[in-house]
Amino acid sequence: MKRELSKMLEIASKLCEDEKYTQALKYYENILRIESDNVAAIIDYGVTLQNLGLHKQALEMYDRALTIQPKNLDALINKGSVLHTLQKYSEAISCYNIVQSLDKKNTMAIAYKGLSVGEMGNIPSAIKYFKKALSIDNEYELAQISLDTAKRIMKSY
């Protein structure tokens, strides 16, 4: 059974890579029918929903995963990302703060936190987060692009 579930996850993941999200959802639903607490499937299901723009449903999946594994970094980062998309920046930052308390060098959480802080209007602080992410991984593209954008915004003031 484990091997079958693993194969189904693989197929669903490949479908997502090919942007065949609705087909992938069917695989995740089947996996979760068999193993309702499969955290990897729950998170990937949430990501797929998020890719389809179904943010509230994606949020429900991340919360479900966090009920099973409260310290799951992927679920926390993805939940923060959905909250950011829904313009709930403070709530998104709370998710990133939890990730940082568990993994101080999580560049994605640091950079995403910078994005939310920037959206709240604190560009100088956002720049600090992007620089911090780059100090950990100097090739982290999202942080570099965000830093360049934030610097351009600062110059236009």
Automatic annotation (TrEMBL):
<dbReference type="Pfam" id="PF13181">
    <property type="entry name" value="TPR_8"/>
</dbReference>
<keyword id="KW-0802">TPR repeat</keyword>
<dbReference type="Pfam" id="PF12895">
    <property type="entry name" value="ANAPC3"/>
</dbReference>
<feature type="repeat" description="TPR">
    <location>
        <begin position="39"/>
        <end position="72"/>
    </location>
</feature>
<dbReference type="InterPro" id="IPR051685">
    <property type="entry name" value="Ycf3/AcsC/BcsC/TPR_MFPF"/>
</dbReference>
<dbReference type="InterPro" id="IPR019734">
    <property type="entry name" value="TPR_rpt"/>
</dbReference>
<feature type="repeat" description="TPR">
    <location>
        <begin position="107"/>
        <end position="140"/>
    </location>
</feature>
<keyword id="KW-0677">Repeat</keyword>
<protein>
    <recommendedName>
        <fullName>Tetratricopeptide repeat protein</fullName>
    </recommendedName>
</protein>
<dbReference type="InterPro" id="IPR011990">
    <property type="entry name" value="TPR-like_helical_dom_sf"/>
</dbReference>
